[in-house]
Design a protein that fits this description.
The protein is mainly α. It has 10 helices and 3 strands, in the order βββαααααααααα. A hairpin with a 4-residue loop joins strand 2 and strand 3. Helix 5 runs antiparallel to helix 6. The two termini are about 35 Å apart.
Length: about 230
């Protein structure tokens, strides 16, 4: 199936997560690549777009919660005390960053924390994380441009001296140079062999990494973080 340049598909893994599951991931697909949304949020140009959109629509708490859970998970700080802090900061009515989730799901997590049932609390937190992750993707997927600008690509690889040459050739986004060859780059005016090789190699790495997720959306046990 072909997609327009502005179309973004979202693939949600099927099935239910157990308490031993990793954080789920939802694959965001564009005409040029697919990759987990969490990875997209780590790309500065994407995260900035998401933050600006959420700020404009006064919905910043969703991203703040997602990043907080990922931070606690990364640091191994999944003790009951931290669950209580999540409740105080995100789940209580009129809390600082009260998130928009269903009352039954909210109640189940709070009850498990109050009962000191750590495994069940982990399972319920995973459900909250997945629900908010899904909400965020559905809300912003059509509002953001996930393709990396050539300018960012060149700066990341210390070759911003060539930005004018790429712009003159009409290359603005990474998708514009997906099929570019060394011969094409020479015609643009890039002659240093080392730089030619590096641009092609880094370009291939960029699309190669994303290509790993093009053909499939992975299951809960294959993607995401290792704890929660």
């Amino acid at each position: 199936m072909k997609h327009s340049d502005s179309e973004i598909m979202i693939t949600i893994p099927l099935g239910h997560a157990s308490s031993t599951s990793k954080l789920p991931s939802i694959i965001v697909s564009t005409p040029t690549h697919s990759r987990p949304f969490e990875e997209l949020l780590e790309m500065p140009h994407v995260k900035q777009q998401v933050e600006e959109y959420l700020k404009e629509h006064k919905n910043e708490e969703t991203l703040i919660f997602i990043e907080k859970v990922k931070e606690l998970n990364k640091n191994g700080e999944t003790e009951m005390l931290n669950y209580q802090l999540l409740i105080d900061e995100f789940l209580k009515r009129n809390s600082k960053y009260e998130i928009n989730i269903s009352s039954p799901r909210k109640k189940r997590f709070i009850d498990q924390v109050n009962n000191q049932n750590e495994e069940k609390a982990k399972e319920e937190l995973l459900g909250i994380y997945f629900e908010l992750l899904t909400q965020l993707k559905l809300e912003v997927s059509s509002k953001i441009d996930v393709d990396l600008p050539i300018e960012h690509f060149l700066k990341e690889n210390s070759m911003e001296e060539y930005l004018n040459l790429f712009e003159k050739a009409g290359f603005i986004k990474m998708c514009d140079i997906k099929e570019t060859t060394e011969s094409d780059l020479r015609k643009m005016g890039i002659w240093k062999l080392g730089h030619l090789k590096r641009i092609i190699r880094k370009r291939n790495e960029y699309f190669g990494v994303m290509g790993n997720t093009v053909r499939r959306s992975k299951s809960f046990s294959q993607v995401g973080l290792h704890k929660i």
